[in-house]
Amino acid sequence: IDTYIENGKNGFISDSIPELRESIHELLQNDELASRISKEGRKTAIKFFDKNAISAQWNDLLTKL
Q1: Which of 1, 25, 27, 46 has the most CB within a 10 Å radius?
Q2: What is the pLDDT, as a whole number, of residue 26?
Q3: What does the pLDDT profile of the chain (65 residues) look like in tens digits?
Q4: What is the pTM assigned to this prediction?
Q5: Taking CA 20 as the corner, what is the angle to CA 14 and CA 25, rounded to the nearest 5 degrees?
Q6: Phi and psi (nearest 5°) for 7?
Q7: Calpha distance 30→7 (Å, rounded)
Q8: Contacts of 31 by beta carbon, 8 Å cutoff, 6+ apart
Q9: Residue 11 phi/psi, 5° resolution?
Q10: C-alpha dihedral over 23, 27, 29, 34, to 10 degrees?
């Protein structure tokens, strides 16, 4: 998952439930942070999962078969 999420930039990653709870609380209390994380998360999702990215991945796979 750390391939896609950069902690504190486009999401939050942790093995600690209290730490994640604090991150969620901060997102709920801080509209600016929530907006920034949301925008960065969307950019990341598009980069890895939009139609063009998936099409390129399929093409790579199929040419190797």
Answers
A1: 27
A2: 97
A3: 889 999 999 999 999 999 999 999 999 999 999 999 999 999 999 999 999 999 999 999 999 98
A4: 0.77
A5: 155
A6: -50, 125
A7: 17
A8: none
A9: 165, -170
A10: 150
Question: Which of 22, 20, 18 minimizes the C-alpha distance to 5?
Answer: 20
Place of tokens 């609380």: 25
Look at the block and give the residue holding tokens 């600016």. Answer: 32
Q: Which residues contact 25 (CB under 8 A, 6 or more apart)?
A: none
30-to-23, 24, 33, 52 alpha-carbon distances in Å: 10, 10, 5, 34
